[in-house]
Amino acid sequence: MKKWIFTILSLISITISPAQTLRETIAIVRPKLSETTQTFLSDFGKALRRDGFYSAADILQSYGRDSFGTGFTYRDERDGRLYIITNRHVVEQAEVVDIEFSLPDNSSKTFAECPVIGVHDDFDIALIALPKEANLPTLEISTSPITDGTPVFSAGFPALEEKPSWQLGQGIVSNANTLIKSLTNRKELSLIQHTAQVDAGSSGGPLLIRDEQASTGFAVIGINTWKAANRENTNFAIPTCAIDDFLENYPTDSNVLLTRSEVSNRASEMLQAAKSSYQAMMPFVSYRYVSNISANTFYDLVIAASDPATEAMQACFEQGDPLEGIRIGLADIICRQFSEKNYIFSTVDNLDPAHKSAEVIYTVGDKNITTQWTMEQGRWRLVDTENVKANRIEANGISKSYGFGTSIYLGMIVPLNRTFDTSYSIAFKRTFLTFVTYEVTASLLKLQTEKKGWEGLNEITTSHIQNTFDLDLNIGGQLPIKCGPIYLVPYAKVLGGLYFGTDITGINYGLGAGMEIAYKLGYQNYIFANIGYTGRRMKPFDDEEFRLKSKTLSGLACSIGISF
User: Fold this and answer.
1) Which residue(s) pair with 512 in the sheet?
2) What's the confidence (pLDDT) of residue 542?
3) CATH of domain 407-563
4) pTM for the whole structure
5) Distance between CA atoms of residues 172 and 362, nearest Å
6) Pairwise CA distance, residues 117 & 97, whole Å
7) Positions of the chain with pLDDT under 70
């Protein structure tokens, strides 16, 4: 009897042990944002809130706060190093992460500030180095063929009450060869579609099959990455062949990465990417570049980006990933700047392995373009380039992003003839499609008129000064020219309206032209000053009793304004 009980207990122990060991190989990955990025998120969020974009500000300021994903341990047979494999999107913006193992006995083991030493340029894979002294069980990679209907398991730490909670789910492979190029950067890679449970926080966790030969009882066949939002139990994993390719072809030795030849290769690859698309350019844009964007230049970035890039940026904001959206916009602008001209890689200058920085010189004709590069997440990436400044996205010249919702102007018209005294006005103005404006102007005028009358049998004419109120509608065109932070805006407009006096009313129509100077304060926020000419023809309804000394009023118009 005792022997039978002992046998049962032994079988239970054998059954439980692999599950416990499996959990010891699955990690919670907590990205740590740099102080520069945190400051950027805070300042940018405040600026968006000031401009009325409350939802976007909330997304930006909460981004990265207590975020986490999943990863799993892997030992590289080539160098014996212990790594954590996870998704690239889990470690976005982070160069170091905290790795935490939550064990079955409710204890935990943490490795702080582990470096992200590599990300795959095409697939959603990232590699994190654990300390050399770390001693942990690891998962084996399966080489067994996967077919539809194969039982599979998902393991990870999805969120439960906003905290990571262990979860082992079970399902089947519902499509062993799913080709979705939008998820693989247009590369030919078949994904594994499956029904094992995947929730927010599971990203980067392994997709497993049973393997009695493995120490944990499981082997990895893929990395869980995405789930379809509009379908039930439709999840996707990157197959392990992509992991093998990544580890075999990606240099993890910093002595190899921090060389002039490695910088040269990346700089040349960037030119090839520029000829392709903004998606191909994205791996070359650093997160430090993103952190140099201000709220003002972000608005210019949205306007200047191509339609496909703008749609992708919007999707990133909606999905709570705003910084990747900004990175898309930057990649799009850089791609077009470099593809429009025949740039040639020239040389690598000022390589500084200690600070992981370098300058790369490109040439176009007889002109040199200097670009700044940095080592980030195990890749050489752009920090700055002369032709795409993060603090000045739109180049000098005709501006397509100039415009404002509503502005208010206070102005005066100094007469050029003697038909009226100095007048004062208030105007409300809006832009339409950048180059078209419309405004409503209210003015106070003192018109000099002549009134006909009779004294006995003699017709006499007496002079009068009429206080009149003038209400006009103006339709105009403008051509904003950007000169650094200043916009020079020549304009022309036509006007028409009514005027009302003590005992005279009529219509007026005319035109105006001049130059406006604007300084941008924020999103569609400017201060203005302009000077120009205005001329109008005044026609009273009662032509018999009243007539103007001159039917044309001309003057020098000056005004100041602000948009809001």
Assistant:
1) 493, 534
2) 66
3) 2.40.160
4) 0.72
5) 51
6) 11
7) 1-20, 64, 251-254, 394-395, 449-464, 542-551
User: What pLDDT score does 546 carry?
Assistant: 52
For 2, the token pair is: 């005792």
For tokens 């300042």, the residue is: 43
The amino acid occupying position 470 is D
Q: Is 28 exposed, middle or buried (0-12, 13-18, 19+ CB in 10 A)?
A: buried
Beta bridge partners of 312: none
Q: Where are the domains of the chain?
A: 15-248, 254-394, 407-563
How far is it, in rounded angstroms, from Cα 368 to Cα 361?
6
Instruction: State the Cα–Cα distance between residues 338 and 358, nearest whole angstrom.
Output: 19
Rounded to 5 degrees, what angle do the CA atoms 410, 415, 419 make?
A: 125
Token pair for 431: 């832009």
| pLDDT given at position 532 | 95
Side-by-side strand order, sheet with 344-352: 344-352, 357-364, 367-376, 379-385
Surface-to-core class of residue 354, CB atoms within 10 Å of its CB (0-12 exposed, 13-18 middle, 19+ buried): exposed
Which of 71, 70, 224, 73 lies closest to 140 in space, CA to CA? 73
Domain 15-248: state its class. Answer: mainly beta
Please state whether beta strands 407-415 and 397-398 pair in parallel, antiparallel, or not at all (unpaired): unpaired
Task: Give the separation between CA 495 and CA 516, rounded to whole angstroms.
Answer: 18
SS (HEC) of 255-300: HHHCCHHHHHHHHHHHHHHHCCCHHHHHHHECHHHHHCCCHHHHHH
